[in-house]
Design a protein that fits this description.
The protein is of the alpha+beta class. Helices cover 25% and strands 36% of the residues. The chain is built from 3 helices and 6 strands. Strands 1-2-4-3 form a 4-stranded mixed β-sheet, with helices on one face. The longest helix has 15 residues, at 81-95.
Length: 123
């Protein structure tokens, strides 16, 4: 039996090793083949493979696909002490040049690169 309509929606999700993922694909009829992708950061390398797979399976249609990835377990965090020390040294140096309130710990920890996610070591 052939495909009766180009309109469709699919959703698949799962998780493994503390990482959850969700794929959503939508399609509508179209005169040519068009794919719009929204991939989670770090998964951009999938785009050429997805385009090739789609081109092998379909001749026409407008497809939108999205991949979202999230942690299913809380991540361990650590303070990057080297980055923090560099920032504190820079602030101390600037304190002599400008009038400003001394930095607070909550402000320092909110700066990009000071708090990092600890990735599990491979076995």
């Amino acid at each position: 039996m052939g495909i009766a309509s180009m309109t469709g929606f699919a959703r698949a999700d799962g998780d493994a090793l503390g990482i959850g993922w969700v794929w959503e694909v939508k399609s509508v009829n179209g005169k040519s083949l068009d794919l719009r992708l929204r991939l989670a950061p770090g998964f951009d390398s999938l785009e050429p493979q997805l385009r090739a797979l789609l081109a092998r399976r379909f001749r026409r249609g407008n497809f939108s696909a999205s991949l979202s990835v999230s942690r299913t377990e809380p991540a361990a965090v650590r303070v990057n002490r080297q980055t923090l020390a560099q920032l504190v040294a820079l602030m101390n140096e600037l304190a002599g040049e400008i009038e400003a309130a001394p930095p607070r710990i909550d402000g320092l920890l909110a700066l990009r690169g000071v708090v990092e996610t600890v990735e599990d070591e491979p076995d």
